[in-house]
Amino acid sequence: MIKAMMKATLIKKLSYIFKYIISPYGWALFIILSAFFMRQVFEVMRNIGGRELISFIISAIFISGLILFFINFRDRITIRSAIYIFALIIVAGFFGMQLPLAEERTHIITYGILGFLWGQKRSVEGTGKEERESDGRANIIASIIFPSIIFPSINFFNIIFRGVLAGVIVSILDEGLQAVLPYRVGDMRDVYINTASSLWGSLLAVVIATYPNSQVKPMLNISIDKS
Is the pTM above the cut of 0.90? Predict the structure, then answer.
């Protein structure tokens, strides 16, 4: 009985920690703080198995993340939205293949998640009258550029804007921190890669917010019994 209670308490605490890490603010903070230790992590992996091991681990993480994504949003994915999602996956894979360094491909994952979380945060919170009116104005513009058969009834620009803006801000902070660390180097090229990756993630948020046409549920929505 005592062991069961201790196990339940541990699971509850871990759930809280995991919930706050996989959140817009938590993930942004993780990316910035990772500047302190990611280089060492890659060095360890390189010493163990070379760049092949790094590429394998990155691919495994990417595939595992996609599996979790489909499991978490399985009730919101239609045939049409699945086509768009697989198209985005192909784009991400092609984009990653163009990057010469395996380490750079992790940016697609980390900033893709960031763009998705912040874009999703926008689609969840936009429930007030002012938010709906703003979405309506954005939809008029979006419907001109993107026919309704592609993205029917969406707050397209609001989701994209928030996801990409988060990517730009976090990327600048991340690269700025790397520039002052003695064992890291800030690179403007990484800012461009990170911004493109956050755009990719926010496009995923658009698809999930659109099909079916209702409010999207939070990612990894962990219900915790507070009693």
Answer: no
